[in-house]
Amino acid sequence: MSFHLDAFGLSVEPFTKEIEDRDLWLPPSKRGLVDELVDAIEARESVLVTGEPGVGKTCVLRALRNALPAERYRLTYCHNATLGRRDFYRQLCLALGLQPSATAAAVFYAVTTQVEDLARERQHPVFLLDEAHLLHQDTLDHLHILLNYAWDSKALLSLVLVGLSDLDDRLRLRRNRSLYSRLHRRLLLDPLSPEDTADYVRLRLERAGGGRELFASDAIALLHEATGGALRELDRLATACLRAAARKKRKAVDRDIVSRVVRSSSPEERP
After folding, report:
1. Chosen CATH of 3-11+192-266 out of 1.10.357, 1.20.140, 3.40.50, 1.10.8
2. Is the model's pTM score more than 0.90?
3. pLDDT of amino acid 35
4. What is the DSSP string of 223-248?
5. Are 139 and 176 within 8 A, CB to CB?
6. Stretches in the chain below the pLDDT threshold 70
7. Under CATH, which architecture does the 28-189 domain have?
């Protein structure tokens, strides 16, 4: 067991990403966004989700996976968006359990045929494309064709594009308007509020076996200010604060500990 876990009587790392989908914590605003995603997919729509780094985009996708019945929906998750068009479709083939072919046309045909087969089996396919702001332009040029079935009269596939905020600006360009017009809902994921941050820290500590307030309220307020409500940065700094407090044999994390950790982790404060 790590020294800081033993020092505070914690059974596991409280701020780890290794957590089951069913145990993910989401504030009310993000729960509402997951509900809207579920509603969109049940309506066989495609969706754009954008947000700044670390605000919980992938957590929302995991919560979506947990919310959709596996017998009715086939979710395919792709996060390597830096591939060219042919390799991108080869990746989709592998994710769908297909053997990718040699040519781009054959690979695309295999994917679209699988989508049609799933529709006949009454299992709606959902392609989740994470880090979509990194997609090559030649892939973006082609994605709207992937959504076109039976002369664009059938919605056999839901596409969920997830990426940084500048993805929305990119999709608004004239070149990408065919794809953008097919993204029926465009959702923005905001950072945590100060109240969200406090709830998150206390819940994660409670689930790790923390039986008392290990972070003072003003320490949590400073954590929120330092992280700007970004979950990934909050996990990193909160863990560093627990370690620092344990080394100093403190019984809890106070504002002074957080201030020291923030200063030491800030590039401009380093010599």
Report:
1. 1.10.8
2. no
3. 95
4. HHHHHTT-HHHHHHHHHHHHHHHHHT
5. no
6. 1, 102, 150-153, 211-212, 266-271
7. 3-Layer(aba) Sandwich (3.40)
